[in-house]
UniProtKB/TrEMBL annotation:
<dbReference type="InterPro" id="IPR033879">
    <property type="entry name" value="UPP_Pase"/>
</dbReference>
<keyword id="KW-0472">Membrane</keyword>
<keyword id="KW-0812">Transmembrane</keyword>
<feature type="transmembrane region" description="Helical">
    <location>
        <begin position="130"/>
        <end position="148"/>
    </location>
</feature>
<dbReference type="GO" id="GO:0050380">
    <property type="term" value="F:undecaprenyl-diphosphatase activity"/>
</dbReference>
<keyword id="KW-0378">Hydrolase</keyword>
<feature type="transmembrane region" description="Helical">
    <location>
        <begin position="60"/>
        <end position="78"/>
    </location>
</feature>
<protein>
    <recommendedName>
        <fullName>undecaprenyl-diphosphate phosphatase</fullName>
        <ecNumber>3.6.1.27</ecNumber>
    </recommendedName>
</protein>
<feature type="domain" description="Phosphatidic acid phosphatase type 2/haloperoxidase">
    <location>
        <begin position="61"/>
        <end position="169"/>
    </location>
</feature>
<dbReference type="InterPro" id="IPR000326">
    <property type="entry name" value="PAP2/HPO"/>
</dbReference>
<keyword id="KW-1133">Transmembrane helix</keyword>
<feature type="transmembrane region" description="Helical">
    <location>
        <begin position="20"/>
        <end position="48"/>
    </location>
</feature>
<dbReference type="InterPro" id="IPR036938">
    <property type="entry name" value="PAP2/HPO_sf"/>
</dbReference>
<feature type="transmembrane region" description="Helical">
    <location>
        <begin position="154"/>
        <end position="175"/>
    </location>
</feature>
<feature type="transmembrane region" description="Helical">
    <location>
        <begin position="105"/>
        <end position="123"/>
    </location>
</feature>
<dbReference type="Pfam" id="PF01569">
    <property type="entry name" value="PAP2"/>
</dbReference>
Amino acid sequence: MLENLNYGLFYLINANADSPAWMLTLATIIAKDLINIVPALVVILWLWGPRGQVSAQRQLVIKVAMALAVSMTASWTLGHLFPHDRPFVDHIGSNFLHHAADDSFPSDHGTVIFTFALAFLFWHRLWSGAVLMAVAVAIAWSRVYLGVHWPLDMLGGLLVGLLGCLSAQILWNWFGQPLYRGLRQAYRVCLAFPIRKGWIRD
């Protein structure tokens, strides 16, 4: 049943030889480059921001890192326990993005971006989480559209991201504050010079 749904959705979304070149170009940019929003936002949130919000931003960054560690570990484990070929490996649909013929479930890109979006929904602002969730859906669509993933690979990424965020909240409740203080102290020591210069926040 699920496999039939997977195939049906894939054929509905997947591009073909008649797809417009501009759509393929847009999908390729989204599929390959939009994920860079994750490290960029992490760095920005840690180094800059209103003085009264920097502490909360850095705690968010640590929670995101925890969530990603759990979700990516779970993704790697599931990929080995339940291996699934990519569509182009099974010669299904059309492929427009070069990719290694490794296991597709769950999607690493989907896992990362859905974990990130869920983290902002849970721990930041509703609007920022909604924007990032839209980005996540766009990335998920693009990778199915280009033929390197199945739709259920992306659903798997969403569910693993949810697991990562729930686990991160539990871990934060156990030792989050001591970890934050330790990392903040290490940051102050390692980047004392740019902090003194005012280039980045204390």
